[in-house]
Amino acid sequence: VLLVLPILGFYYLHGYWVTNTPLQDDFDGLLHPATLWQSMPQSISSTWELLTTQDDERRVILNRLVAISITEAMGYLDFRWMKWIGLFLNFILVGLLVDLIRVNRWSWWTLVPAILLLYSNANYGALHWGMIPVQQIGVFVWGILALWAASRGHGLLAVVAGCLSLASDVSGVLILPAGLITLALRRDWRLFGLWFLGIGLAVFGYIS
User: Fold this and answer.
1) Residue 110, class by beta-carbon neighbours within 10 Å (0-12 exposed, 13-18 middle, 19+ buried)?
2) Which of 175, 178, 186, 208 is the most exposed place for a label (fewest CB within 10 A)?
């Protein structure tokens, strides 16, 4: 009950109060690119340029990709779906924590504070701001998944999740040194080289 109630309460209140209303950076960061997508000649180069154009100091590639996908599917950008998709990423963190508890034989009570933190009122700001869940929840979720995969020797998953973290927000660039340190401590030099090459090229492309 302690685990289920905060989750159900969080998503119930989100579903009850969520609005299809853009806020602040939603206008130029998501609504403008999604609207432009509908009217511009669509090609790989023009789509890539639309996705990677900077929004202030960052590139919100994944956010715009989700926004364009919703626009393509529904005919308009529904900010409620932007928020739902981002908030469901929390389940990835719950799954990783379950794996840690199982492998290390921790008490299952460890899940209680984690669930209360993930589904606390600290995340209720996502009700009003469409960019926040996919961007600022996503950058941490994908980054943690990347480091978990790297620590388990899952090279392809690690690199893909690391790139998704980078595509979520500019703070995703920190995944490069974090992954290198993790792999150096494991002395997994094959994956160290793959990480350096794959994530390094992605970071270089992101900041250039």
Assistant:
1) middle
2) 208
